[in-house]
Design goal:
By secondary structure, the chain is an all-beta fold. It has no helices and ten strands. A four-stranded antiparallel beta sheet has the order 2-1-5-6, with no helix packed on it. A four-stranded antiparallel beta sheet has the order 3-10-7-4, with no helix packed on it. A two-stranded antiparallel sheet has the order 8-9. Strand 8 and strand 9 form a beta hairpin.
Length: 103
């Protein structure tokens, strides 16, 4: 069984046992998270699509850890002006392991 969930403005196709990296959630490590915005649920040969979400469906996951991604260096350069700005960014994430798909 698999499901397509919506979180953090992105869609993820998940199965039980999958580990996914999502935008940072307000949950501590080793806690449970429920994703209510399920766009589709599928089994072998049968798929159920929502309009826009499937009623009564939920995906349950366990938060493994919270962290920050790899550092990105951003350089803004203005030609002929003699100015350059260097910035860095690390996007926060939450690693979630999918434990159950209900629906």
């Amino acid at each position: 069984m698999y499901a397509v969930i919506l979180t953090g403005g992105k869609q993820y196709s998940v199965k039980v046992g999958d580990s996914i990296f999502v935008e940072k959630l307000g949950a501590e490590a080793d806690s449970e998270v429920t994703f209510d915005k399920v766009l589709a649920i599928g089994e072998e040969g049968a798929v159920k699509f929502g309009t826009p979400t499937v009623d009564g469906a939920a995906v349950v996951g366990k938060v493994v850890k919270n962290g920050k991604g790899k550092k990105l260096n951003i350089i803004t350069y203005r030609p002929k002006k003699g100015s350059m700005v260097r910035k860095g960014h690390r996007q926060p994430y939450t690693k979630v392991e999918i434990t159950a798909i209900n629906g």
